[in-house]
Amino acid sequence: xxxxxxxxxxxxxxxxxxxxxxxxxxxxxxxxxxxxxxxxxxxxxxxxxxxxxxxxxxxxxxxxxxxxxxxxxxxxxxxxxxxxxxxxxxxxxxxxxxxxxxxxxxxxxxxxxxxxxxxxxxxxxxxxxxxxxxxxxxxxxxxxxxxxxxxxxxxxxxxxxxxxxxxxxxxxxxxxxxxxxxxxxxxxxxxxxxxxxxxxxxxxxxxxxxxxxxxxxxxxxxxxxxxxxxxxxxxxxxxxxxxxxxxxxxxxxxxxxxxxxxxxxxxxxxxxxxxxxxxxxxxxxxxxxxxxxxxxxxxxxxxxxxxxxxxxxxxxxxxxxxxxxxxxxxxxxxxxxxxxxxxxxxxxxxxxxxxxxxxxxxxxxxxxxxxxxxxxxxxxxxxxxxxxxxxxxxxxxxxxxxxxxxxxxxxxxxxxxxxxxxxxxxxxxxxxxxxxxxxxxxxxxxxxxxxxxxxxxxxxxxxxxxxxxxxxxxxxxxxxxxxxxxxxx
Amino acid sequence: xxxxxxxxxxxxxxxxxxxxxxxxxxxxxxxxxxxxxxxxxxxxxxxxxxxxxxxxxxxxxxxxxxxxxxxxxxxxxxxxxxxxxxxxxxxxxxxxxxxxxxxxxxxxxxxxxxxxxxxxxxxxxxxxxxxxxxxxxxxxxxxxxxxxxxxxxxxxxxxxxx
Lengths: 489, 162
Fold this sequence. Notes:
- The structure holds two protein chains of two kinds.
- Chain A is of the alpha+beta class.
- Chain A is 62% helix and 8% strand.
- Chain A has 13 helices and seven strands.
- In chain A, the strands form two sheets. In chain A, strands 2-4-5-7-6 form a five-stranded mixed β-sheet, covered by helices on one side. A two-stranded antiparallel sheet of chain A has the order 1-3.
- The two termini of chain A are 80 Å apart.
- The mean pLDDT of chain A is 83.
- Chain B has one domain: Rossmann fold, CATH 3.40.50.2300.
- A five-stranded parallel β-sheet of chain B has the order 2-1-3-4-5, with helices on both faces.
- Chain B is globular.
- The N terminus of chain B is likely disordered.
């Protein structure tokens, strides 16, 4: 490497590094000055060659060693080297305005240097030495290759490099094929040249070998890549299928949601008209039978008056049914307001409320210290009111009636607490246990125990809305126990 | 059409000077029961009946067939909510939104126990909300108590909506 080439590399390197710190102020200008010097040096050297001048450019850094006197030319950098310096300096100067062109210049410089290296590898001097001018030295060629690469990788996302190093299947393929296409001919060519030199076979055979090896490598690379592409395409198609599936599920979900919403609205207007329209005829039946009773007592036989009484009693029952049904509908509609609640307190209040509206009876009521759970306090109260009311109803013949509100922690279910309301009433036949919680389901005759059969359905609905469980056990004649399990968190 | 149920003196439907009750009710049987109840409560005030919301508004604002009726407004209005043409809530909203009529006491008397109706009734300024009991004895009791309270016990501001 000539001293001028070394100096040019230093300047070029400096310019490159200066640009690494952004493109403003003195760095930008420093970089530009370095590039201009390198380009000028290259240009002048080329002019020296073209017009056979000697401007003394080559002895700026001192004259050549004494032993090599007379070889002035050998201190002058090779024309290809000068050209490469012009290319690279220009590339650095224009890279921000025309990145693609700058990359073309850098690639050209890299190719010239690579050609020189190939020349050394294959022993073809014409590749590193133009006619009788100075040759491009191996270190110079290597330095050019490295510099070109450094330049190209400085902005890998833009220009031609973007194709190679971006994201996506095309980029992946380019990145995979590039080293193969670059290195394979180099290595095989080198190996075959060595073999020809060692006289293992003739040049013709070597070329044939080179051709067949190139074909094999290219075919292998193509086959490998097509397999990879096929696989990635399959993956993409599967992902698309999945996405399509998810989309169709979403569509279905939207349709279902709107159906549910409209069903909910229907139900709401249904319960509204039940509340309003079903009551009006009842009122008329009751009112007019009452007026009839009052105004025509003298005219009617005793049996007719009893019949009128039945009409009116049934009207009252119908009214109670409608009211309970509405309560049942409402417990499903109201939004849950869950928080940590003290069940013992709520159970005691519920017991007071139920006892308050019933007749005076001797009842032994026991409420244990129940651990807290997460529930809607208003709805939990409805649960206790219904269960205690139930217990009172079915213990009406017991003296004393005993009602016990307690809890148990089932092993293995640490996040749930099971509460129970136990009575010593008539109980029920366990065969019908599954019917207990249905709307309007009754296991006893209405003249034995009054009620509409909605209370336990309301209990079940509330517990289910809390994500809990409700069930009952009984020993007929000895009482029943109603359990419900609620979450602690 | 308006039914003049109780005897009424004066010309052209003009109010006789005694306090009038306006019942807005579309169901004829409910209406009959209400009138029966008022009679049993020994209420002798004149009673006007409007069979839907539009008629109630025409009566109060003296438009349509009531353009020529005399001055004076009912002392209390018993208003059902579910009415043909103009709903009870709409009547309530109009009456309570108008400075000329907002002081007339309005008692909502309806079958609906729905929270939504109760809330809206009070939001629009109902003076009272009564759910008609199905039991006739209770119904009679409720209606005569309403009459007693709003006609005799309650003291309205001087001359409502002249």
